[in-house]
Amino acid sequence: MENFSLILAIVVVTALAFDFTNGFHDTANAMATTISTGALKPKVAVAMSAALNLVGAFLSVEVANTISKGLVDETGIRPEVIFAALVGAILWNLLTWLVGLPSSSSHALMGGLIGATIASAGMGAVHGDALVTKVLIPAIAAPIVAGVAAMLATRLSYTLGKKADGKAAAKGYRAGQIASAGLVSLAHGTNDAQKTMGIITLALVAGGAVAPDSDPPTWVILSAGLAIALGTYLGGWRIIRTMGKGLTDLQPQQGFAAQTSAATVILASSHLGFSLSTTHSVSGAVMGAGLGRKGGVVRWSTATRMFVAWGLTLPAAALVGALAESVTGLGDWGTALVAVFLIASSAAIWKVSRREVVDASNVNEPDEPAGVVTTAIAAVTPPPTGTLAEDLTDLTATIPGPAAEPATPAAPPAAAV
Predict the structure, then answer these.
(1) How far apart are CA 297 and CA 371, in angstroms?
(2) Low-confidence ranges of the chain (pLDDT < 50)
(3) How many whole angstroms separate alpha carbon 34 and alpha carbon 185?
């Protein structure tokens, strides 16, 4: 029993460590556009997001129940299985953070859980219907729905704002951006913090500490909320830079449209118990907002790398989770070996990240120059807003006038006779 209590404590601590990585990995979802448009200073933005993540963790337990009760069969799941699942999720989060890719922490967690469960109890222990309806379908639908909504909202914003005073409209959109960013942070707390709650609750059920089909205890909700809030406050600056500047260049109208659209999708999914990826929703909304502005473009090279990471998240985390479970199944020394591997790998990734530091001081610098197609489109498409005089000034500045003809040299004076 003492040994079992120790492994259960290790699982809880590891789950909170994952929640911490989820916080700094997904800070960009709520605050990248607000930071990139200058609506809030970087450190103020992450502090606000952290506080609202903590509040959001107490609003619902529907997603937590999807994780703890719906995805895998609770019976026969050992705490070591959950520990192995968390190892796969944490390592994938750290690797994608290192390269600045906004992948899904949710899918990393679920991939690790599926892989470890299959390695321990076989395919039959995974509820395929729940995986398809509450994970895979939302993963595909969320960025599309959020992207289309953000594109339409962006176009509507520019249409309605044509006759508005430029400075007053910009100020209003910045205020709207701050409010919508807060809504995304709140939604992130209601969705992502619950996934760790679900994992801890599943571990408690597996260890006999709580009855099957129980809701997360209050201390689980509080600890998960604090862990994700702390991670959010530290700020995943690498991913914030990719989301805010790497995908597209956003104006306040676009930032407001993107965040409002993403928050609506996330809150609706949380209410329905869908384990939605906030990363997919916000990334889709940012790209939709980029395409919604006349003259706006998306850096498809960055987007393509992001799509590849999305596709690899579930299988990669599942593979690591399955391998970790195979080692933990060898006994206590196997579990200790996996724990040492996790700590050593995390330290190595952090050390590599120090070679090029990204923080609040340089987060708004684009991580790569615009591609040839992006530059060409931006060059030939007129800006979306401004008065006629401003447009003519822009055209004068961007289209050079004809080169002046060289002056004809004056004929030499006739020689005196």
Answers:
(1) 10
(2) 1-4, 368-399, 416-417
(3) 12
